[in-house]
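FYI - complex with zinc ion, inputs then prediction.
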Amino acid sequence: MTTTLPAYDEVVARFEPVIGLETHVELGTNTKMFCGCPTDFGGEPNTRVCPVCLGLPGSLPVANKAAIEATVRIGLALNCSIASWCRFARKNYFYPDMPKNFQISQYDEPLCVDGYLDVEVNGETVRIGIERVHLEEDTGKTLHVGGATGRIHGATESLVDYNRAGIPLVEIVTKPIPGTGALAPEVARAYVTELRDVLRSLGVSDVRMEEGSLRCDVNTSLNLPGAEWGTRTETKNVNSLRSVERAVRSEMLRQASVLDAGGRITQETRHFHEETGDTTPGRSKETATDYRYFPEPDLVPVAPDPAWVAELKAALPELPRLHRRRLQQEWGLSDLDMQSVLNAGAVELIEATIAAGTTPAAARKWWLGELSRRANETGVELADVGATPAQVAELQGLVDAGKLNDKLARTVLEGVVAGEGSPTEIMTDRGLEVVSDTGALTAAVDEAIAANPDIADKIRSGKVAAAGALVGAVMKTTRGQADAKTVRELILSRLGAS
Ligand SMILES: [Zn+2]
């Protein structure tokens, strides 16, 4: 079906979007949720398994305390109430990559409920309600082979790998988020970004979207102003921050075109396609009753001691929002300047550069100037541009010591990015050091005076501003390596004008 999608501006002028996000986070515990199998990424298929995570008869699960602790800490960081008593539940469904034919999850008794996360979009704070944070186990992975696309259609056989089955998974569900209008896609992205940063600061997960340790499902619906909320769709497993934003936007456009044509939105899951930026239907959405949830009889209830929870709360690290606010103050930046640092993804890089011995102003100058430009040109993230904070600090140290001027420093930085070595090595190897030795510069100065007698006369008669032209001439003959200040002083003293 090919339909022409309406323009985004038109859609948000006529419809109000409501979004919601469900995020799955693989915890970075050493062992799985209910057994002692290791959890690290990779490994030969089906080598990190045991009777418990394979669901063999007679095996019994035991809950991983580190996973419960991590989940409580996530709940606390998201301002949730922590249950004083809760149970795991069996969620029954058949799936080849789920060896027990049920998943141990939490249903009506989640570990953490009713919190919020503040995110910033365009300088405004948006409070995102958190409905629940619960703990469950991950499934294995199915691999379809023989087909062209890696999907089940056209495949000749399917393989299952249970290494991931049983890895602790935390699900974080937002409350519905109405009222964001045209900003809905950006709010969704800002939320996942902030959540990722919070999880990283807690050290509970490596939060790598590309490896699937952070996965996001995006709910989207549209309604007419003042009307009831529309039917929502759930776009599954969106794998990058950029895709979160694109998935919301594309689903808003698609739903608007269906509604405009007098159609109805089906409640269903949809798949997001990275290449085209659109979604296609998956299965029609199950309701909770399809899963026949019941309390997991093989596990004791979880009853976190309030004193332990209070201890965990007191020991939470400084969370990203507060951390950023403190840095902004320390660096003396306006809101706008801080925003450009954030947009460039440069906070941690600047922080590390300062830690390596540079002033905030110098660190910011390099990362937001030369290196951001370079990252944009080559289409990479700033962190992958090829220079490290330590190298940038070293470069600035050479500038501060008068060994490099700005122009030479930029040339050296190009060498650093190209992998030629450290700033000092490149400066030495390429002979880029500033020449401030008076003896070496006098000849060049005399040459410039001789070649420009008119200008020299002006300077002799007191027009010292004319010295700039001679400085320029000396810089040219020394290929930019002369120290401009020294050159100027030499010119003035040779012409008796100082
Ligand atoms: Zn196991």
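The radius of gyration is 30 Å. DSSP finds 16 helices and 14 strands in the chain.
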